[in-house]
């Protein structure tokens, strides 16, 4: 397995954790704590995690659309958790990944230009 495939697998596992893993953790918690974890995951953790992952990928590899595409394609897994497809979350999460990726690619370009 080459380096790009390993990194892609790592990104996939991280995104799956935000989309599915946190809900598995919430099942072991108190009801109020589980609700707080799920709400915070929807509003803060997932968008921030996707932004940071996109930033890291963009900074390391420049224009590689791996993270935004994974964020967009893996989102339908949330249908199993919520029982419905919430399209605006998919758009927001994908935009967070794209903004992070573009900012990281810009930082990579500036770094390479200054060298």
3D architecture notes:
The model has no long low-confidence stretch (mean pLDDT 82). It contains 5 helices and no strands. It has one domain. It has helices spanning 3-26, 31-61, 66-74, 78-82, 87-114. It is an all-alpha fold and 115 residues long. Helix content is 84%, strand content 0%. The termini are far apart. Helix 1 packs antiparallel against helix 2 and helix 2 runs parallel beside helix 5 (87-114). The relative contact order is 0.16.
Structure characteristics:
single chain, 115 residues, transmembrane helix, membrane
Summarize the model shown:
This protein is mainly alpha-helical and 115 residues long. It is built from 5 helices and no strands.
* Radius of gyration from CA coordinates: 15 Å
Q: What summary fits the major beta sheet?
A: none
**Fraction in helix:** over 70%
Q: What sequence of helices (H) and strands (E) makes up the elements? A: HHHHH
What is the number of domains?
Answer: 1
Query: Which class do the helix and strand fractions yield?
Result: mainly alpha
What is the rounded distance between the termini? Answer: 31 Å
Anisotropy-based shape? elongated
E-strand count:
0
